[in-house]
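User: I'm curious whether this sequence folds into something compact or stays loose and floppy. Could you predict its structure so I can see for myself?
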Amino acid sequence: MMLFDTFNKIFYSLLEFIFPGRCCICGEQLLFNMQAHYPLCMMCIEKVKFIEGVRCKKCSMLLISENEICTRCREIDYHFLSNYSLFEYRGLVKELIYQYKFKAKKRLAYLFSEYLSVIINKWFNNMIVIPVPAQRKSIIKRGWDHVAVIAEILGKKYGIKVINCLKKKRVIPQKELGELERFKNIKGKIILKTRCLPWIFKEIVLLDDIFTTGATLNECSHVLKEYGVKKIYCITIAID
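Assistant: Here's the prediction. I'll summarize afterward.
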């Protein structure tokens, strides 16, 4: 079985090298115009820009006139200490996340995990990473858990400690709700998987794709705190 799996990996790697397809953003041919088998041409990769400037110390949003903490975060008592977002959720990054989640461009998970690994190793070194769970209905519809796939790569390729220990009950999709409704909608809908022991880790990092209101991350943090985790940080691909 292991020999078969190894052969499959080699075969599909060669196939991908010979027929890499087109850039998922601009449509350019990728043969001799790509890095590390990402479905992006080199020109589009160079356009991916990290957030630069003064950020809110709580949610990671760029600050314009506020001092240290943005106006929204001053009114919310989050259970996590802070969120670190790599990008703003707009333009190229927004399209990349859309292609990844809804167009099955699963190779983008390697791109996201590469960027995330740099920040995790720099700011959250040796902490356990826990992916925010997707709803079972979404996993069945998509065929995979988009955040869990990134977390798995972080563990296997970059040696980051990952524990997938949370589950999400059925809820109304958060994107359909307003800010306050999101907090109410997710309350009580995150549970701990059986036989998981998060309390043995005093500091953890929650991983998610997009920070919008922080409601889901907040509920995950609340559950983990109830089980004895002392310090919780968050890292997300983008902030909306």
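Summary: Residues 2-18 form the longest helix (17 residues). DSSP finds nine helices and six strands in the chain.
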